[in-house]
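REQUEST FORM: STRUCTURE PREDICTION
Request ID: SP-0412
Submitted by: Lab K.M.
Chain count: 1
Length (residues): 193
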Amino acid sequence: MYNVGVMIFPGTNCEVETVRAFKQLDVDVETFWHRDELDGCDLIVLPGGFSYGDYLRSGRLASFSKGITYVKDQIEKGVKVLGICNGFQILCEAGILPGALTRNDDNQFFCGMTSITNDGYNFYDIPVANKDGKYYCDDMYVNIAYKYSTGNIAGVYSEHENVLGMMPHPERAVESFHESQDGLEILSDFMYK
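STATUS: Completed
RESULT:
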């Protein structure tokens, strides 16, 4: 059975949706506190929210957590990691993924449906909700996982594609009552990539 661990930081608020999403994929899923360890995971998820209130910079304080050392150790052992929204910000702040998430161009919080693609042909309708969601990286090589239909970067992979960070919320596009169920394909594709 595939095992998913959802790491919770102070301020995380998307862990319930994340657990429900992975249960739709018929895997074992468990939450655990960022100071703890959960052995036996095939995938660790850093869900969205406002870790430590994002008082300094989105994801910055969480990047110093003992849990991030654990995440880095697990990546070395071959465990996959998915960071969604604030989880993506944490992965960038911790240096696990390149780049940074900065304020949206209009300096406004945006919440709504968006369209993303991983190949320019297949598009997925996924919710997005952020104010600091503009990805920036000055590296010449960025392993882009998803782009918005506008062409902006929605998610990136690590070099070996075992770590994925994305701003849109696939866990909010899985239930029959959601506007879209495209998140199931995104989560499943990464799990079994």
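NOTES: Residues 86 and 152 are 18 Å apart (CA to CA).
Reviewed by: T.R.
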